[in-house]
Amino acid sequence: MAVGQTSFPDMPVIEGIRLGSAKAGIKKPDRRDLVVIEIAEGASVAGTFTRNAFCAAPVLVAREHLAEKTPRYMVINTGNANAGTGEQGLRDARACCMAIRELTGVPYDAVLPFSTGVIGEPLPVNSICFGLPDALANMGDDSVAWQQAAEGILTTDTRTKGAVATCEIGGQSVTLNGIAKGSGMIRPDMATMLAFVATDAAIERSLLESLLRESVARSFNCITVDSDTSTNDACMLIATRRGAAVAGDDEIAAFREALDKVLIDLAQQIIRDGEGATKFVTLEVSQASSRQEALDVAFTVAHSPLVKTALYASDANWGRILAAVGRARVEDFDVARVTIDLDDVRLVEQGGRAESYTEEAGSAIMAREDIVIRIALGRGESAATVWTSDLSHDYVTINADYRS
Amino acid sequence: MAVGQTSFPDMPVIEGIRLGSAKAGIKKPDRRDLVVIEIAEGASVAGTFTRNAFCAAPVLVAREHLAEKTPRYMVINTGNANAGTGEQGLRDARACCMAIRELTGVPYDAVLPFSTGVIGEPLPVNSICFGLPDALANMGDDSVAWQQAAEGILTTDTRTKGAVATCEIGGQSVTLNGIAKGSGMIRPDMATMLAFVATDAAIERSLLESLLRESVARSFNCITVDSDTSTNDACMLIATRRGAAVAGDDEIAAFREALDKVLIDLAQQIIRDGEGATKFVTLEVSQASSRQEALDVAFTVAHSPLVKTALYASDANWGRILAAVGRARVEDFDVARVTIDLDDVRLVEQGGRAESYTEEAGSAIMAREDIVIRIALGRGESAATVWTSDLSHDYVTINADYRS
Fold it and tell me: In the predicted model, what is the mean pLDDT of chain A?
């Protein structure tokens, strides 16, 4: 299931980026499961990675290579996460980089590996190596190449996810293209499952890194399907530097806005395609004494199985939202100052049900696919927005059957 | 659903305790939904209550009254939690205490009110007041009275929950009886949904309080069904002081052991009857650098929807356990030192799947109803044990339908 309609956008060419994909038979036959992204010389590349302590072998290798050289290739497989695979996993991730070196002549550590899929199975390196020549042979820079790449990184996703933005930098138009995957094990911490964003803007690496870090904090790090942070999260941002230079405050602000637009769009597409999702829920927490406090409250509500099942049932069971807010460990919490609204319907005020509330009004909102829950804490000026999905029978079915 | 077989134990008389119950029609007709516990003069009473900031009106009133007087009556209703009910809720909880005063002559603040059920509906005070004479008229101290009281506090529970222990204190036998309810919204924080334990031992109040606090930390605070801490949690311990005195170190140790036995038994019964539960899972975390660290890891695994759905599917998907351990925010975590065992089958060592592991061995354990997962962190000497259930279709069904 998935919430609402989306279509893959028409993606413009980003000069300096080409993408190729192949059906390598990694887990299933006749499935696009291998993607190669080629980055022309002279680019800047920034990345954020999972903070899960059991991070996957490709994450360890990608982080190491990114610290050493500016990447020229990214190689991404689905069907196998190469996580929980110990020393053998590291050898396998490096073997994929070596294979790219053999085929293209770039240094081995100018290749970043990424994997997604089942945890704990040995990576089928041979299948990947056999698939790579095909992926390199069909490299392209048009919208079809982007869409095939978006398809080649999916796991339990039911839709490809892409987003485009442009902004004016010193009179020149700059473009950002992004693709992502993710549907379950989604509670990104520093990045999401996998997202690849490219721009033709000319941005120095250190600036690119800080822009990515900030934008990820407002997008991928504000979504959750099931509270389970993946072992393989990675979000990469490539600036090919073929276009306008981003350096002054105004240019940075314009680029930041466009980057936020792409990352938030991709993050929301992941939630709309969350495992078993029937609802797309926006949690807006305001009047918090810090952004962290606002995030803590928002995630406590977003992770509550009772809130999520009530959302699935389209039941305006505001008592469960109130109970979740109350257990969020806010210090010296005066609940009499809290208000909770469902879109424009006031649910809770002064520690209990709002006088104006009617079940009819609440039920009318809950019947929608897109729902906004607003929680004002009455404690300060900070705010945060988190996006989540509901907990449905399909979530249980998908995850009770995933390996079989 | 519920895990394994249980039967309500034969409960001995605790001198100084009588229990009565009635069918007051609070939410459903012909359902035992009102319980009164009478405590003879001279008892000591200790209580622990939820730390949910939106705590229910009866919790606020009970805490207030307990600070003022030694209670003579507890009045408990199911079918309505009287939580999220603001000022009206406080007036309603006090009205129940006033009704007991009218009927028995004890001071109004010698009565403690407790409620459990749906959050946010006004308490039907009239139904409760009409039912109280009936409950007072059928007071008894035998096993039937205890079992009817255990029945009269249930909500979505499918079973009554009772536990008995005895211990020798200075050559005299001392008895503890306990009853509890709870099935969903179970992640107790300072106490569980509702538990009432009585003993004939003679124990001073301050000692009783510290014994209760410590034992709750090892029992009710170590269980979780769905991570949702209730607004109404309360655990009460009554010492009627008709029996042997508990004062010296040896007597305290003997009593502590018996109290642990009752509370852990009740806590485990709640998990076995967890909403939709098909598995009873024990998480033993050892070699942690602190007890809190061990608890953090255990609860992260216990709350993971992906681990819980794998348990439901009887799928030895150890990668999900590993991913949950890895996101538990343990500082400077060397995952190469972690081992994870499923009963006596080693799953994970040196950052990946154990060499000796076979799917057959893992699947054989996962097929059981009772499963032990052992996680050794390789960091220190501290340990913690947490009990939890799985996440099944029935959990979603129960909570998507609860209000209808």
Answer: 92
Q: Which of residues 283-342 of A touch B (CB under 8 A)?
A: 303-306, 309-310, 312-313, 315, 317-320, 322-328, 330, 333, 335
Chain B CB within 8 Å of residue A60 CB: no
What secondary structure does DSSP assign to A54-104, as a single string? S--HHHHHHHHHHHHS--SEEEEEESB---SBHHHHHHHHHHHHHHHHHHH
B228, B320, B391 ranked by CB distance to A304: nearest: B228
pLDDT digits (tens, 9 = 90+) for B16-51: 999 999 999 999 999 999 999 999 999 999 999 988
Q: Which of residues 143-172 of B touch A (CB under 8 A)?
A: none
CATH of B17-270, picked from 3.30.479.20, 3.60.70.12, 3.40.50.2000, 3.30.70.260, is 3.60.70.12
How much is the pLDDT for B192?
65
CB contact under 8 A, B54 and A228: no
Q: A17-272, what's its fold?
A: L-amino peptidase D-ALA esterase/amidase (3.60.70)
Give A229's pLDDT tier (boundaries 50, 70, 90): confident
Is A348 an interface residue toward B (CB < 8 Å)? yes
Q: Distance between CA A232 and CA B170 in Å, rounded?
A: 60
DSSP three-state, residue A130 = helix
Is residue A381 within 8 Å of residue A286, measured between CB atoms?
Answer: no
CA distance B111 to chain A (A): 24
What's the rounded Cα separation, in Å, for the pair A301 and A323?
9
ipTM of the complex: 0.84
Q: At A192, is the pLDDT very low, low, confident or very high (cuts 50, 70, 90)? A: low
Average pLDDT over residues A31-58: 93
Exposed e or buried b per residue across A310-338, where buried means at least 16 C-beta atoms within 10 angstroms of its C-beta? bbbbbbbbbbbbbbbbbbbebeebebeeb
Greatest distance between any 2 Cα atoms in chain B: 71
User: Which residues of B fall within a CB distance of 8 Å from A231?
Assistant: 319, 322-323, 326
Cβ of A86 within 8 Å of Cβ of B351? The answer is yes
Asked whether A311 and B43 are in contact (CB, 8 A), the reply is no
pLDDT number for residue B191 = 61
Which part of chain B is CATH 3.60.70.12? Answer: 17-270
Considering only CB atoms, B52 lies closest to which of A184, A185, A327, namely A327
What percent of chain A stands above pLDDT 90?
A: 72
Once rounded to an integer, what is the mean pLDDT over residues A365-389? 96
Chain B within 8 Å of A85 (Cβ-Cβ)?
yes
Rounded distance between C-alpha atoms, residue B111 and residue B105, angstroms: 11
A205 touches chain B (CB under 8 A): no
Whether A51 has its CB under 8 Å from any CB of chain B: the answer is yes
What residue spans of B13-142 are helical by DSSP H?
Answer: 57-68, 86-104, 125-137
pLDDT band at A207 (very low <50, low <70, confident <90, very high): very high
Question: Could you tell me where in chain B the CATH 3.10.20.340 domains are found?
Answer: 280-401
Catalytic residue among B78, B85, B155, B192: B192
User: A with B: how many residue pairs have Cβ under 8 Å apart?
Assistant: 216
Element (H, E) at A352: strand A352-353
**Would residue B278 show up in a list of annotated catalytic residues for this protein?**
no
| Residues of A with Cβ-Cβ distance to B335 under 8 angstroms | 53-54
Where chain B has pLDDT below 70, the residues are 1, 190-192, 402-404
With respect to CATH, is domain A280-401 assigned 3.10.20.340?
yes
